[in-house]
Specification:
Strand content: 15-25%
CATH superfamily of the largest domain: Glycosidases
CATH class of the largest domain: Alpha Beta
Number of strands: 31
Largest sheet: 8 strands, parallel
Structural class: alpha/beta
Oligomer: single chain
Mean pLDDT: 81
CATH topology of the largest domain: TIM Barrel
Number of domains: 3
Length: 841
């Protein structure tokens, strides 16, 4: 009898143990590990509970956790036993009570051949490469697990990993509700989860949910969620080389400090110390594996090598294992209406830009196809608008240029959203590197008061008080501008960040201007101040509490959302790029600002995101890529939660950022349209989002399902990829135009399947549209065109016709009240399905 342990994965990442056995019999026994038996030669009789199985060459059998079993071996056989760590497998498959039905005599030949090849590849990677790393062995182990999951896994009840909950004694109704809650946590623990969100999904009150959850699990909601997050984070800590900050954010922790606190409470040491210890153990284990593999005289290993060599020589065609398809079942239930907050407002740019005929032509195109409600612009009182005439004894005003801008907007069904303050026009190449700066002259309070009064009286006379009262007026605060703080580091260091007087200048200006506006157009919305969300939480709340103490309050709070993190030391690797590593930055920051509003007494204040984009840069080629389409779709769908009244994309056209260095057709401008009017993937993303209905059926990590009146459904799905961490080690804007798609964490397709249950039977018309690198991408088409700078008008027209989404129409008959949509989404692809019932069946 010979037993040889081939491989054991490292401590705390221990997933599998692999043994070879020869002439081995055992008495009846049971264990927690799931056991896979694979016969190399000879025969083996296995008894599981009261059922006996006869295994011959290349047969396999799985014995589930804690199942009593025994086997009887003949005098000349060789077989493999693979033990899967139950808890680790539960973590990987995101479910408990794992049960496999895996017996080679009862499965189809194609499926059994896939499993055999998976087992043999796992053995070969070790035996053929004695110096292979643990990672290579684990790669084959994961592949084997993927096969088992695809064809043999029977239990589908999703619960959380590594958190024991005794549901045996629960009443049936409570058990079902708890399972649903735990399943929701498991599916969404990487998101900013709250009791309010889960209570809303379950249609119960927050106090009831809190009490119910504590009673059934013995833990508070936050304790439970943190334990789930911690279980996944610890696994990544010792099995990946990700930074600790990245691990924390990827697993749902809002920041590194929160992760450190939870980790220390559980392990009584810091994550960095824990990782260091486990890496040392891992290295010792890896060396042990290599040493044992080098033992060439072992008879069992020699025989196993011979077997694998023979089977490899006999295999002419290897099977192609299809990647797992991500499947979602959507049941028609209680649906709710929602507001399309993302197309209420679009940023048009500086006021003088709107005097350009090229800019006006693009705004008309954009308005006719996308249909925004408000058009936001600033610099209305800049020197270039030639408003103030100081040649006489007193100041007089000439609003002819302003009226041209306002006439244009009103005539094209765009209500003005006017930034009245001294907000400059800045063209940025990257953060804190300006190409161009255009500012307005300073004014005293008396000058501001006179100017605003004259301007509003002009507007009321020209458009009526009823019309002007529907406009928005925003007043910007330079005190809350991070770029100003960066440009004046010395002042920033010397100032008291919680000095009550530091915002007084803004509060005084806002109070003065709002008072004047309210006297002339009483119900018009007046707010501010263009908060940038890189601010620390305490300073944000401090600012809002100071404002609350003033006599004049805003009608809305305006914020800018650019994923900028000024603290480069937030991870153990020094970043050179200020963009956030958090793919859910906007969602995180919106939750932060809503919490700050509640804590400062502004809980019912209207919240408007007046600017948002991936970067403040006007020379970032990501703006022209397909990545931007998925970035827009992801963030709009993620934040469909009622927090935000409107969210204004920055900006509508690259004409805003046209400057002396913008010689190419595309140059990284932030617009939805190039300066020559070619629609970008970002434009097409807004076009697809426009087709959504006003009733929310369901939404998930990478999809949304909506409904319009009647039997009309709209489904948008997307394959978003965030940046690889190496991207942050280089300054923003330094990636070559041909390398724009080499900076992401992976380039895998998303195999998605959506089953919508509860629809009416009948014949449906199905319209499909999609944006990817092959359809609708101006950057890719320009590269295919030769990326020339001397482009001609007819060539621009060619690209305008070429850069459109893919479209096709099909018909399908539904007879079981269920529609299944399947597709393979390329990286950075956005896809829309529109289902319309033609006639009932």
């Amino acid at each position: 009898m010979i037993i040889t342990q081939l491989f054991q994965t490292p401590i705390d990442a221990k997933l599998i143990d692999i043994f070879t056995m020869q002439e081995r019999s055992t008495l009846n026994h049971a264990h927690k590990e799931i056991e896979l038996i694979y016969l190399i030669k000879g025969t083996l009789r296995v008894k599981v509970r009261d059922v006996a199985y006869q295994l011959n060459k290349q047969d396999f059998l799985i014995i589930n956790s804690n199942e009593p079993h025994s086997f009887v071996s003949n005098a000349d056989n060789l077989f493999i036993i693979i033990h899967f760590n139950y808890l680790q497998l539960s973590s990987l498959l995101s479910q408990e009570n794992i049960i496999f039905a895996c017996n080679s005599s009862e499965v189809r030949q194609a499926e059994s051949e896939q499993l055999r090849r998976g087992i043999e590849e796992l053995l070969s990677v070790y035996l053929k490469q004695p110096h292979s790393s643990v990672v290579e062995v684990l790669e084959k182990a994961f592949k084997l697990i993927s096969i088992l999951q695809s064809f043999y896994l029977k239990s589908q009840r999703n619960v959380a990993v590594n958190v024991a909950v005794n549901v045996d004694s629960l009443e049936r109704g409570n058990s079902q509700r708890l399972n649903e809650i735990l399943g929701y946590i498991q599916a969404n623990f990487r998101e900013p989860l709250s009791l309010e969100e889960v209570a809303s999904v379950q249609y119960i009150t927050v106090p009831y949910l809190s009490k119910f959850f504590k009673k059934q699990t013995g833990k508070t909601f936050s304790q439970y969620v943190n334990k789930v997050r911690l279980a996944y984070a610890v696994n990544e800590l010792v099995t990946t080389n990700k930074s600790i900050t990245r691990i924390a954010l990827d697993n749902g922790f809002p920041n590194l400090a929160a992760f450190n606190r939870v980790f220390n409470d559980h392990y009584q040491e810091k994550p960095v110390e824990y990782r260091k210890k486990k890496m040392q153990v891992l290295k010792r284990e890896e060396n042990s594996v290599i040493e044992e593999a080098a033992y060439e005289n072992n008879e069992v290993l020699q025989e196993l090598r011979y077997y694998l060599k023979q089977t490899e020589a006999q295999t002419v065609v290897l099977y192609n294992m299809e990647p797992n398809r991500e499947t979602h079942i959507i049941k028609m239930g209680k649906m709710k209406a929602f507001t399309k907050y993302w197309n209420k407002m679009i940023n048009l740019g500086y006021a003088t830009d709107l005097l350009s005929s090229d800019m006006q032509e693009q705004v008309v195109l954009l308005q006719n196809e996308l249909g925004f409600t408000y058009g936001r612009f600033w610099g209305v009182f800049s020197d270039e608008m030639h408003i103030e005439d100081c040649s006489g004894e007193s100041i007089s005003y000439n609003f002819s240029n302003v009226n041209k801008v306002l006439d244009f907007l009103v005539n094209h069904r765009l209500k003005p959203y006017i930034e009245l303050g001294p907000k400059p026009k800045i063209l940025s190449k990257k953060f804190n590197h300006s190409l161009f700066l255009q500012t307005s002259g300073k004014k005293t309070l008396a000058e501001w008061r006179g100017l605003i009064k004259a301007f509003l009286l002009n507007c009321v006379e020209r458009y009526s008080v009823e019309e002007v009262e529907t406009w928005y007026f925003e007043i910007w605060s330079p005190e809350m501008d991070p770029m100003r703080e960066q440009r004046d580091e010395e002042q920033k260091r010397s100032s008291n960040r919680h000095n009550p007087g530091q915002f007084e200048e803004y509060f005084t200006l806002f109070g003065c201007l709002k008072t004047v506006i309210s006297e002339i157009v009483p119900t018009a919305k007046v707010g501010g101040c263009g908060l940038t969300m890189d601010l620390e939480k305490d300073r944000l709340e401090f600012f809002l509490k100071q404002w609350k103490e003033k006599d004049v309050h805003p009608d809305f709070l305006s914020v800018y959302l650019y994923p900028i993190e000024l603290d480069s030391n937030s991870s153990n690797i020094k970043k050179k790029n200020v963009l956030s590593v958090n793919p859910d930055y906007i969602q995180t920051k919106l939750k932060q600002v809503t919490n700050a509003l509640e804590h400062s007494g502004f809980e019912n204040l209207e919240l408007n995101v007046t600017e948002w984009n991936i970067s403040i840069s006007n020379r970032e080629l990501l703006n022209d890529s397909c990545f931007k389409a998925t970035y827009i779709a992801k963030n709009i769908i993620d934040n469909l939660n009622g927090y935000v009244n409107m969210m204004g994309y920055w900006t509508c056209s690259d004409i805003f950022s046209d400057f002396k260095d913008a010689k190419s057709l595309i140059y990284g401008g932030a617009g939805l349209l190039t300066k020559s009017g070619i629609r970008k993937p970002s434009y097409h993303s807004f076009m697809l989002l426009k087709q959504l209905g006003e009733i929310l059926v369901a939404k998930g990590k990478n999809y949304i399902v909506t409904k319009k009146s009647g039997d009309r459904y709209q489904i948008i799905c997307f394959n978003y990829k965030h940046f690889d961490y190496a991207y942050y080690l280089y300054p923003e804007g330094t990636v070559n135009v041909n390398e724009q798609y080499d900076i992401f964490e992976d380039n895998e397709e998303l195999r998605l399947s959506l089953e919508i249950q509860g629809v009416s039977n009948g014949k449906y018309r199905i319209k499909e549209r999609k944006i990817n690198r092959c359809q609708g991408s101006v950057l890719d088409e320009w590269l295919n065109f030769g990326s020339v700078d001397d482009i001609k008008p007819d060539e621009v027209n060619y690209l305008k016709q070429k850069c459109v989404p893919y479209m096709k129409v099909d018909h399908a008959v539904v007879d079981n009240n269920s529609v299944i949509l399947t597709g393979e989404l390329q990286p950075h692809e956005v896809r829309l399905y529109e289902l319309t019932l033609l006639f009932r069946g």
